[in-house]
Amino acid sequence: MKHASFRAAATTALSLAVLGALIFFLLPKYWVFLITAVFIVGIALQSLGLVTGRTGMISLCQMSFAGVGAWVTGYLNLIGAPGGLAVWMLIGGLAAVPVGIAIGLPALRLRGINLAIVTLGFAAAFDTVLATITFPGQTTFTQVVRPAAFDSDKGYFLFVLLTYGVIAVVLEFVSRSRLGAAWLAVRHSERAAAANGISIPRAKLSAFAISAFISGISGGLLAGYLGTLVSENFSMMQSLALFAVATMAGAHFALGAIAGGMMIVLFPELLRRLNLPQDVGNVLFALGAVQALSTGETIAETWMRLARKLRPKRVVEAATAAGSLPEKTSHPAGIALEVRDLTVRYGTVTALDKVNLKVPAGTVVGLVGPNGAGKSTLVDAIAGFLYRYDGSILLNGKALEGVSATSRSKLGIRRTWQTTRIAPELRVGEYIRLAAGPINESALESLLAWFGCPGPETPISTVDVGTRRLLDVAGAVASRAPVILLDEPAAGVSYDEALKLGERIAAIPETFGSAVLLIEHDMDLVRRACTAITVFDFGRVIAAGAPAAVLDMPVVQKAYMGVEFEEAAE
Ligand SMILES: Nc1ncnc2c1ncn2[C@@H]1O[C@H](COP(=O)(O)OP(=O)(O)OP(=O)(O)O)[C@@H](O)[C@H]1O
């Protein structure tokens, strides 16, 4: 995985170096000056891409963060603070961080249009404040001093390109780290992210904080680029245009950020040369954003898809058992999970009615029942996704009431979902690491091979739904938590694969140390995997015990398989 990060970072750095050299040596001074702005805007776009494209939150005040960075840079320039522009813009970026966190706080509760309104409101308020306080040196026309070695316009281009490169390379590493995977997981499904032990507040606030820092740096660079700034440089309209372009271009990709920067900088230049009003640009950006949202594909993604078509088709390679499996964890003996008198109501519907269930350590307990019997509700309650229930749930004898889903996951309750919720932008290995925490390369390969999954570098977007379900299970198992809840893991898997999966599930306690609660409709798989089963009907336990005996009970056949008692008795 580390090699992949280094490879991606080296490719980014090399591409930028080549691009930079071509621009520096081949283009006239005026164009180099213009393209410098492309990269400054590209940095602002990358910052926005982190919050929106990567983490799935709306921020319509990104230029306000840039404004904070620019203002602080201007102030440090005015007072002649030591360190020069490179230090000032870093301090400017840091100053934007608390503002980013403050804006991120509402994002913990708000989504979509409501978050858009809050961030837009902040951008409007910031507009007014900036217009009133003005930029340091604005009235006296004090120019922000560029670093001595990069003073000329061409030199400043190199300074900006270098900053862009450093940010792009660092983001390449971060995006392949657990934090980067957590952002994508949150964007895709907050519930699934929480089930993997990810703190949603931490993921969201870190995205806003880092994004504000990068945006603040772009503001500092803009100060050095233009010399003096006015509040209009960071107006609400600028933030809106940035958002539209980020949505259209795919600013969370380095390629998309540069493409977006070119649009924002070069399009007005084109309109100017054609004697057309500048507002035309914003209209086209908005149309482009609508187009990207309706097709679900940004410009960067379209380019990457077309580039993939040109390359030879990648064959999904199965993982190879290179070494030993992750070590078995020893958990306390006795009852790993206990549910006592659990009652859950959805309005007038009683989904669970005084349910009692035990999953002893070292066993696989099956939970079966017809559709609507309450099985998923039980999993939701155990994993902490129901705010209210009566009764009690205990993990190794400790009650879990009042404990959040993220904390339950960290304490040792892992779950999978009926429909896969893995972020398709991740690679197989990134997902397993997200779900399981640190795991060495050979153990990862072996675990994937044990489940018959593809290799760690395989993009999840290229694997079928059945394989994604297996990855769900592999991720939960790799965590080696005391209790694993598998919600219909064989859905979408072929019959033969389901039987094989049954054998694997049966071996989980012995191999990894986890106890399993398995919900499944496939009775062959249940027979193969479970030491005991519990049968639900209408939210009540109607039978429990050894699989063969329970599945033969007339009451179970009637409830679950639709066989009338009389017929079953015949
Ligand atoms: N969010 C909800 N609001 C209202 N009723 C709900 C909600 N979720 C589930 N129910 C109801 O609770 C009952 C139990 O549903 P649940 O999904 O837990 O059953 P299940 O056994 O998992 O079914 P399936 O096998 O189809 O997944 C059903 O009557 C269902 O309609």
Automatic annotation (TrEMBL):
<dbReference type="InterPro" id="IPR027417">
    <property type="entry name" value="P-loop_NTPase"/>
</dbReference>
<dbReference type="InterPro" id="IPR003593">
    <property type="entry name" value="AAA+_ATPase"/>
</dbReference>
<feature type="transmembrane region" description="Helical">
    <location>
        <begin position="85"/>
        <end position="108"/>
    </location>
</feature>
<dbReference type="Pfam" id="PF02653">
    <property type="entry name" value="BPD_transp_2"/>
</dbReference>
<feature type="transmembrane region" description="Helical">
    <location>
        <begin position="205"/>
        <end position="228"/>
    </location>
</feature>
<dbReference type="InterPro" id="IPR043428">
    <property type="entry name" value="LivM-like"/>
</dbReference>
<keyword id="KW-0812">Transmembrane</keyword>
<protein>
    <submittedName>
        <fullName>ATP-binding cassette domain-containing protein</fullName>
    </submittedName>
</protein>
<dbReference type="GO" id="GO:0005524">
    <property type="term" value="F:ATP binding"/>
</dbReference>
<dbReference type="Pfam" id="PF12399">
    <property type="entry name" value="BCA_ABC_TP_C"/>
</dbReference>
<dbReference type="InterPro" id="IPR032823">
    <property type="entry name" value="BCA_ABC_TP_C"/>
</dbReference>
<feature type="transmembrane region" description="Helical">
    <location>
        <begin position="240"/>
        <end position="267"/>
    </location>
</feature>
<keyword id="KW-0813">Transport</keyword>
<dbReference type="Pfam" id="PF00005">
    <property type="entry name" value="ABC_tran"/>
</dbReference>
<keyword id="KW-1133">Transmembrane helix</keyword>
<feature type="transmembrane region" description="Helical">
    <location>
        <begin position="30"/>
        <end position="51"/>
    </location>
</feature>
<keyword id="KW-0067">ATP-binding</keyword>
<keyword id="KW-1003">Cell membrane</keyword>
<dbReference type="InterPro" id="IPR051120">
    <property type="entry name" value="ABC_AA/LPS_Transport"/>
</dbReference>
<keyword id="KW-0547">Nucleotide-binding</keyword>
<feature type="domain" description="ABC transporter">
    <location>
        <begin position="337"/>
        <end position="563"/>
    </location>
</feature>
<feature type="transmembrane region" description="Helical">
    <location>
        <begin position="58"/>
        <end position="79"/>
    </location>
</feature>
<keyword id="KW-0472">Membrane</keyword>
<feature type="transmembrane region" description="Helical">
    <location>
        <begin position="115"/>
        <end position="135"/>
    </location>
</feature>
<dbReference type="InterPro" id="IPR003439">
    <property type="entry name" value="ABC_transporter-like_ATP-bd"/>
</dbReference>
<dbReference type="InterPro" id="IPR001851">
    <property type="entry name" value="ABC_transp_permease"/>
</dbReference>
<feature type="transmembrane region" description="Helical">
    <location>
        <begin position="155"/>
        <end position="174"/>
    </location>
</feature>
